[in-house]
Design brief:
The protein is built from nine helices and seven strands, in the order βαβαβαβαβαβααβαα. By secondary structure, the protein is α/β, with parallel strands linked by helices. The chain has a single domain, classed as NAD(P)-binding Rossmann-like Domain (Rossmann fold, 3-Layer(aba) Sandwich), CATH 3.40.50.720. Strands 3-2-1-4-5-6-7 form a seven-stranded parallel β-sheet, sandwiched between helices. Strand 1, helix 1 and strand 2 form a beta-alpha-beta unit. It binds NADP nicotinamide-adenine-dinucleotide phosphate. The site of NADP nicotinamide-adenine-dinucleotide phosphate has 30 residues, from helix 1.
Length: 293
């Protein structure tokens, strides 16, 4: 008998948008392969007991390319082709370029860019032969506009955006859809898990960029905790994209992302940069002695 369920593979399902995506696909006509890092695997598996839908957990660190190869090969062998790949796992460094260390920058790129690209390369041959499939990469407003202290994060999402755009052209003749969903501010744990390279944590930072960190950090925390956008609402948008007959290449993941995209499109670029600079939180204190001294 022909299998009617579609196979969906999602990375980074331990929490946040990934976890909500898993819930969104559950109970519908899908078999969901949900991956989390090894350290979360047992708890994650336990959290799935009693679910009526079919969720198959996998341990995957997206920066471990061999691990990615094993997981995708395993799914292809046991369950058949992956219909929808959702590259959701991501991390975010909040450190200015001068203070970013190479190792952390490499980790930022490995997680948000090289890992997803590797998974895409693994699913593409099968999708191409079947002449169908969907790849959804979770980008960010940070993949459209760069903000101070978030250079490495933006670089990783800009890279994801550029590669996805090229891929869109490359695989369209094979009937494969590529989409980038760009959430703006989402009230998830992501901002609590934000990483600081080389001890640049704003809590005890007295360096030249102390005010950059302090103001950006307070500002982002304020918006992220007050926004009505939740991992659930972002996941609903991503799910809708996965169901569109002709999904667009770029889709705003939250209403603020639509607004930022609109601003970026309509404002003359020089004015846009001037306006954004003037609007940065506490900008008049940046480059001066730390506020708290
Ligand atoms: N939250 C926002 O405001 C926002 C805005 C724009 C875009 N996004 C994007 O949305 C996606 C999901 O973010 P979120 O808000 O749900 O953040 P989150 O709550 O921090 O979740 C991130 C997920 O990625 C996983 N992950 C991190 N590094 C990994 C690795 N090396 N291998 C496998 N999994 C890894 C995390 O696993 P662990 O639990 O093991 O750390 C977690 O499951 C990310 O790509 C993020 O850049 C988020």
């Amino acid at each position: 008998m022909k299998e009617s369920r579609l196979n969906v593979f999602i990375t980074g399902c331990s929490t946040g948008i990934g976890r909500s995506l898993l819930n969104e696909f559950c109970g519908k006509e899908f078999r969901v392969f949900a991956s989390v890092r090894q350290s979360k695997f047992e708890d994650f598996k336990a959290s799935l007991t009693g679910r009526l839908c079919e969720v198959i957990p996998y341990a995957l660190d997206v920066t471990d390319l061999d691990n990615g190869t094993e997981v995708i090969n395993d799914i292809h062998t046991i369950y058949g082709p992956i219909d929808i790949l959702i590259n959701n796992a991501g991390i975010s460094y909040r450190t200015v370029i001068e203070e970013m260390c190479d190792r952390d920058e490499a980790l930022q790129m490995a997680t948000n860019y090289f890992g997803p690209m590797h998974l895409i390369r693994l699913v593409l041959p099968v999708m191409r032969k079947r002449r169908k499939g969907r790849i959804i990469n979770i980008s960010s407003v940070g993949g459209m506009m760069a903000m101070p202290t978030m250079a490495a994060y933006s670089a990783s999402k800009f890279a994801l955006e550029g590669a996805s755009e090229a891929l869109w052209y490359e695989v369209r003749p094979f009937g494969i859809h590529v989409s980038l969903v760009r959430p703006g501010f989402v009230n998830s744990n992501a901002f609590r898990k934000v990483k600081y390279s080389r001890g640049t944590d704003p809590e005890d930072n007295k360096g030249a960029y102390a005010n950059h960190y302090r103001h950006m950090s307070t500002f982002i925390e304020k918006i992220t905790t007050r926004t009505p956008c939740t991992p659930e609402s972002a996941a609903r948008t991503i799910y809708k994209v996965s169901q569109m007959k002709h999904p667009p290449l770029r889709i705003a993941g939250t209403p603020d992302a639509s607004f930022f995209s609109y601003l970026r499109r309509i404002l003359p670029r020089r004015f846009y940069h001037w306006l954004l600079y003037r609007s940065l939180p506490g900008i008049k204190t940046w480059g001066k002695a730390p506020d708290h001294e």
